[in-house]
Amino acid sequence: MGTCSRAEIMRWCLAIHPKGLCCLVFRVLPKLLDLPRSLLKKFQKDEHLHEHEQEMESGTELGNLPELSQDILMAIFATLEIPDLLRASSVCSSWHSAYTSLASLWQYNKNQTPCLLYTSESAGDNVACLYNLAEQRVYKLTLPDPPIRSRYIIGSSNGWLATVSEACEVHLVNPITGQQINLPSVITIEQVKPIHDNSCSTDMYEYSWRTGTEEPYTPSIFSANVLQDRLFYKAFMFSNTSTGSYFVVLIHNRFGQPHLHGSVMISGLGCHHTLAIWTASIWMHYSEEYPPLKANHAYFTDDSELWLGGYKNNRCDIGVFNMDSNSREELVSPRLWSNWPTPIWITPNLTNM
Amino acid sequence: MAAPESGDGNNGAARMVTLISSDNTRFEVEAAAASLSQTLQLTILDGGGGGGDGIPLPNVDSATLSKVLEYCIKHAPAAANGGAPNATAVDRAELERFDNEFVNIDQSVLYSLIMAAHNLEIEGLQSLVAKKVADMIKGKSPMEIRRTLGFPDPTPEEQAEMNAHMLEYGWAYE
């Protein structure tokens, strides 16, 4: 606690060097007089501590780390990828409080390099693997139930995954923090009605193929896990930074609609390319923003439900497309991921809802 | 009230200002370079620091101030061009090379620079030193970070606190 309060106070006293602290006390005293008496006392105590520390450290050859203020620590931490930030947060209590302040700021995730989130049989059913492009290494995160390997991953926005479980529940889960949020039940969707049948042990649903204007087929009866496969297509999450609220947009009833193709504008180094992509999730790289990624390359994953839906062992296409040479490169070799649930790009985020 | 010379070098000699370090060394430097400091900018705009006056910087020793000014002098021309949108790739590469070499320094000097950059509010230098420290942290465990940055060994209480924090996000430490 002492370290933390000292660091905060350093902000007021504008000390350049621990040695200069003593004389600075007098310079900043008028400023401190506006502050509560308790804080002034704290300052005196910490000042004393500081001298003591200096004595203790005066033999080391390394430069002694001055107590960096919370502002400075936050500026340093803001440049780190989340795994580095988390490790830095455990260094001491002052660093931990700088981390806590930073994590509470909504804007934090802007500098994060996207990671590939995937699962693998060997890692376990509840484990999401995060392949960090910046460090080129894998982190294994244990997620809450239901097991991630039994879910469909239908979207990734702002560091949150949208998933559909075998019971056809839709969840938002932040793999970094482990926070999970249940979205409203599937029966709140107009086309889905529960069927109450005591003779049947699993939940059954009547699913209407009705679109806005027509009903092309007669309703179907699906069990929850069939509905899991059929109902949802994509989820997107949007946030309103001014109010701190979130919106989730679900696209469903895909067989009743004209098929969707993605179209993405990719920019890099002054030239523009438009790619028509087949229901793939793609991550575009603007060269200046994310140094760990290669400029003028598209990082893509494949979630074409026509290819992968119902065929969980079909190989999904994941890699890096070089737009200069018009060629495809492997992201990592050998492949680390299971084909299902389909791997997806995610930009890690420490925000809890 | 007459506005002071802008000191942009277009009308003869560039305007100079004097900065005085905590150990009373006087540094004469172009106003444009010193103005990279947000803290000094207003004083300089008000005509301060000229003649025999000088601006005292009681928080910055002469070794640190000379290093800070080396940065400011190198970056002032680009800053004068509004962040140098027209700079050539060669200019940018040269500044980058300078920056990389500039922070290739002893840790004690680096720490003094961090504090000075922050107190003088020199934006570019602040990010440069922050990035340097960040690079020293990357890929390291909390204990390795402590050793790298010259922290004393943790007390048993500090160690217990570190362990508790590490449990929170265990995956990041594997």
From TrEMBL, chain A:
SMART domains, alphabetized: FBOX
InterPro entries given in the database record: F-box-like_dom_sf (IPR036047), F-box_dom (IPR001810), KIB1-4_b-propeller (IPR005174)
Origin: domain of life: Eukaryota
Domain F-box: 62-109
Signal peptide: none
One Pfam family, short name: Beta-prop_KIB1-4
Recorded coiled-coil stretches: none
Stored PROSITE patterns: FBOX
Name of the protein: F-box domain-containing protein
Species of the source: Eleusine coracana subsp. coracana
Gene name for this UniProt entry: ga03571
TrEMBL record, chain B:
Record-linked InterPro entries: SKP1, SKP1-like, SKP1-like_dim_sf, SKP1/BTB/POZ_sf, Skp1_comp_dimer, Skp1_comp_POZ
SMART domains: Skp1 (SM00512)
SUPFAM superfamilies xref list: POZ domain, Skp1 dimerisation domain-like
UniProt keywords, alphabetically: Ubl conjugation pathway
Family: Belongs to the SKP1 family.
Assembly notes: Part of a SCF (SKP1-cullin-F-box) protein ligase complex.
Species this protein is from: Eleusine coracana subsp. coracana
Residue ranges of every copy of the SKP1 component POZ domain listed in the record: 16-75
Annotated protein name in UniProt: SKP1-like protein
Domain of life of the source: Eukaryota
Function: Involved in ubiquitination and subsequent proteasomal degradation of target proteins. Together with CUL1, RBX1 and a F-box protein, it forms a SCF E3 ubiquitin ligase complex. The functional specificity of this complex depends on the type of F-box protein. In the SCF complex, it serves as an adapter that links the F-box protein to CUL1.
Record domain SKP1 component dimerisation: where: 124-163
Associated pathway: Protein modification; protein ubiquitination
One Pfam family of this chain: Skp1
Keyword Electron transport included in the entry's annotation: no
PANTHER family given in the database record: SKP1
Keyword Transferase tagged: no
GO biological process, one term: protein ubiquitination
